[in-house]
Request: fold
Amino acid sequence: MFTKEILIWLHVVLASFWVGGMMFLSLVVVPYVKDKPFRNEAFQEVGRRFSLYGTLLTLTLLLITGLANAYLIHGGLERRTVKEKLVLFFLVVIISLVHDLWAGKRAVDSEYHRRWAKVIGIFNLLLGLVMVYMGVRIRLGL
Ligand code: HEM
Reply:
């Protein structure tokens, strides 16, 4: 039982960092930094760090703890909600990589890429909120 508790706890903490991190960036960091002289350096450094701790580490651990929860608590990947959540997860991974490696990286000298980075970032935040909702549905047996 203790393993299941720790796995769900870890999954929820990781989800809090991922979704909370994107909300913090959108509502606190970007509005403050966007008209400052050091904005390019700040966006690149903050982006690089969230790409490492968020996209690379957190999404990888969310997949591992999510699959462990699915098999240890919900009998594997049989249920439709679990399958749908897994498919949506891979969409989140692809969108995060496009954001980090294409739009975000080129945003320094390109208004076009800066706009795409914003749009993709907000879309990924909305997808993250949907992932939390699907987690709740799985928990409720739906
Ligand atoms: C962006 C990625 C993800 C986010 C933000 C996320 C978020 C969450 C949250 C917040 C919960 C807790 C819901 C609750 O306790 O009521 C949850 C539960 C769950 N998630 Fe995820 N999740 C993600 C990825 C995944 C993946 C890839 C899987 C793999 C199939 C997965 C499988 C599950 C399962 C099985 C539960 C239910 C655990 C339980 O019984 O409480 N999650 N998820």
Summary: Residues 10 and 65 are 7 Å apart (CA to CA). The first helix runs from residue 2 to 33. Residues 8, 11-12, 15, 18-19, 62-63, 66-67, 69-70, 73-74, 82, 85-86, 89, 92, 128, 131-132, 135-136, 138-139 surround protoporphyrin IX containing FE (CB under 6 Å).
